[in-house]
Design brief:
Ribosomal Protein S5, domain 2, elongated, about 15% strand, Rossmann fold, 5-stranded parallel sheet, about 525 residues
Length: about 525
């Protein structure tokens, strides 16, 4: 007898429906799974047999063939255990009624005792189920909160295989999960780290405010203990809140990566990712034998903080060029090509030399000029060009440390940043590909960033004296546009250009020291 059960699988950060066909026929006992099953899907045969039998049902000694359609896409993961088990039970006539089976998508890993365990990608699969017009989705309880953010879909959680069978036979009920989205977003307004804790460094705080207002990348260079990491950790607290669409897209990425668990639901706070310097290029950009999102995608709509930037391997840093420019990562394999979104704000921090005290007025640097040049050269000129703001972070002065006055709190800075972002949303209302000033293409500058004669002369002189590239020229105009937005969004003045230029002057020495790439 043939039975069909609907399930789903993830491709990139989106999902597609998979029809699990289970055929139980006479012949020599066998259990075969086809449809390009990989790894955990093949091993699922043993989990399904044990789980079904330990739940009080029978896997008959017959020829069982399971097909996962479409059969030309490789299937991985353990989420097909539950639909395969239901297909076998329906195909062997052990279920009294299966009318509900056609209206629900099933998903879940099975333990050997029939208990259901959480799986990856519940949110994108729930979205696919809704788009297909299904009544609902049945999945492990731990995944319920994640999938329940999808409106118009019945999300029912189960703890065991027997509970699912009872619901499908209409002899028991599984509750429909409900999520209060507004309550979730209200919890996102509380931030643990506040800029009020940071003493001194007012010019660095200003640079971070400009970076946050325009979603610009920023590099902080200074000696150890100057507060670079402390400042970076507080950036999410001054970024505007996520919109629902941004939260949904961010949660999909984390769901596919398996980072949504413990009953967690929608990610409503800006991500902050801080990978270690030993990370590989695949870990940063994504990939692997079964491709997964990397850190640049996990930081989508948030902050990617690379501390000790010069200590990362050169090849690891260079793979960031494409996501920094295109806001997406394309991973190509022989059988498939996947694209992950990666629109993030890059925040880098590094010492100015190997010992860390080059240019420090209080401690003596022990590095020679060649050592300083070699250290700065670890970060290539093309990568520095893609970082909009470069700011020096000097050692904190004693009078700032001893001062009892708290700094400006993050919520005030966030208000100014949110107003500037609102100006940008209105400006780019007809351009869904532009989310902030940093995302403008060179062709957009003539339309949105017109510079007066006086400002143009200042900019031309600075470009000539600093020897900046064409990309750096575009970065300066974008930064000036953001500074103007913080002032209300009027015309770009000479003062705005002047402030923008000072955030690029640091890369003159670094670019000269860096070898060509």
């Amino acid at each position: 007898m043939l039975a069909r059960v609907l399930s789903g699988a993830v491709l990139g950060i989106d999902a597609y429906l998979v029809t699990v066909e289970a055929d139980v026929a006479s012949g020599l006992p066998a259990f075969t799974t086809v449809g390009l099953p990989q790894g955990a899907v093949k091993e699922g045969r043993e989990r399904v047999i044990a789980g079904v039998q330990n739940s009080g049902y029978l896997v008959p000694p017959k020829r069982i063939t399971v097909n996962l359609a479409p059969a030309d896409i490789a299937k991985s993961g353990s989420a097909f255990d539950l639909p395969i088990a239901m297909g076998i039970l329906a195909g062997t006539g052990q279920m009294r009624a299966i009318r509900r089976l056609e209206r629900y998508l099933l998903l879940g890993e099975m333990a050997l005792d029939g208990a259901l365990r959480p799986v990856r990608g519940a949110l994108p699969i729930a979205i696919a189920a809704k788009n297909a017009g299904l009544a609902g989705i049945i999945l492990p309880e731990e995944n319920v909160a994640e999938a329940a953010v999808v409106d118009g879909l019945e999300v029912r959680g189960a703890r065991t295989l027997k509970e699912v069978i009872g619901f499908l036979e209409e002899s028991a009920e599984l509750p429909v999960a409900q999520i209060d989205r507004e309550a979730l977003f209200r919890t996102a307004t509380a931030y643990g780290a506040d800029f009020a804790d940071v003493k001194g460094q007012e010019h660095v705080k200003r640079a971070l405010e400009v970076a946050a207002a325009g979603a610009h990348n920023i590099l902080m260079v200074g000696p150890p203990g100057s507060g670079k990491t402390m400042l970076a950790q507080r950036i999410p607290g001054i970024l505007p809140p996520l919109t629902f669409d941004e939260a949904l897209e961010t949660t999909k990425i984390h769901s596919v990566a398996g980072l949504i668990g413990g009953g967690k639901s929608l990610i409503v706070g800006r991500p902050f990712r801080n990978p270690h310097t030993t990370i590989s290029d695949a870990g940063l950009i994504g990939g692997g034998s079964n491709p997964r999102p990397g850190e640049v995608s996990l930081a989508h709509n948030g902050v990617l903080f690379l501390d000790e930037l010069a200590e990362f391997r050169r090849n690891v840093l260079e793979v960031m060029r494409q996501p920094l420019e295109d806001s997406r990562v394309t991973i190509s394999r022989a059988a498939i090509s996947l694209t992950y979104p990666s629109r993030f704000m890059l925040v880098g921090a590094m010492n100015p030399c190997p010992c860390g005290f080059h240019g420090d007025t209080q401690r003596r640097c022990t590095c020679g000029p060649l050592a300083v040049q070699k250290y700065l050269g670890r970060v290539s000129g093309p990568l520095l060009d893609r970082i909009d703001l470069h700011v020096e972070v000097p050692a904190v002065r004693y009078r700032d440390l001893a001062s009892g006055r708290p700094g400006e709190p993050s919520d005030r800075i966030r208000e100014r940043v949110a107003r500037a972002r609102e100006i940008q949303r209105e400006r780019f209302a007809g351009r869904p590909d532009i989310h902030a000033n940093a995302h403008m293409m060179p062709a957009d500058l003539d339309r949105f960033c017109q510079v007066g004669a006086g400002s143009d002369a200042l900019l031309r002189t600075a470009i000539a004296r600093l020897g900046l590239s064409a990309r750096a020229y575009h970065r300066i105009i974008k930064i000036a546009r953001t500074i103007s937005d913080l002032d209300g969004g009027g015309e770009i003045t000479t003062a705005h250009i002047g402030e923008a230029i000072q955030y690029r002057s640091l890369d003159r020495g670094a670019q000269a020291a860096a070898p060509a790439a």
